[in-house]
Amino acid sequence: xxxxxxxxxxxxxxxxxxxxxxxxxxxxxxxxxxxxxxxxxxxxxxxxxxxxxxxxxxxxxxxxxxxxxxxxxxxxxxxxxxxxxxxxxxxxxxxxxxxxxxxxxxxxxxxxxxxxxxxxxxxxxxxxxxxxxxxxxxxxxxxxxxxxxxxxxxxxxxxxxxxxxxxxxxxxxxxxxxxxxxxxxxxxxxxxxxxxxxxxxxxx
Length: 204
Prior knowledge:
Number of helices: 4
Number of domains: 1
Distance between the termini: 21 Å
Radius of gyration: 17 Å
Order of helices and strands: EEEEHEEEEEEEEEHHH
CATH superfamily: Jelly Rolls
Helix content: 10-25%
Strand content: 35-45%
Structural class: alpha+beta
Mean pLDDT: 94
Low-confidence stretches: none
CATH topology: Jelly Rolls
Strand order of the largest sheet: 1-2-10-7-12-5
Largest sheet: 6 strands, antiparallel
């Protein structure tokens, strides 16, 4: 398993080596030691989620307050998705910037998304299945959302037909509205939280 940081610090592409034979293929989807070395602290998985999404369906932009924070390892195990990660940490040098990754069932790849980032994806085929390994359990009172069609962020969805979006996202705040409401984490809060994780586990 290889882990490579992307253009947004705190977002990592996790790539696995596939071993194939006449039966099919096998790969390591998660290695705690390898990921910990790249991220800077051990990643403890507390919850695993699964979503199945129709072609043209958009999920997100989701995020969680920091603290308590929630990091994610996102893997597409069936179908294909256009995955988006947005830096929502107010004061970050890359605030409002995004990272795009193509994830599909044949790529043997995942994204590790640190606390403080927003996540969304577009399903490119019917019944795309995405697994999320989360560092903290779901806390509905700590979750917040941003509209996936925010003009300031301008995510490159490349839509050729109308997207399928849940009602709550149609009225979700824009990035500027979220700033005004004070619902976004700050860069300082996120970096301080990461330091607590490093210290708690004795990371170097």
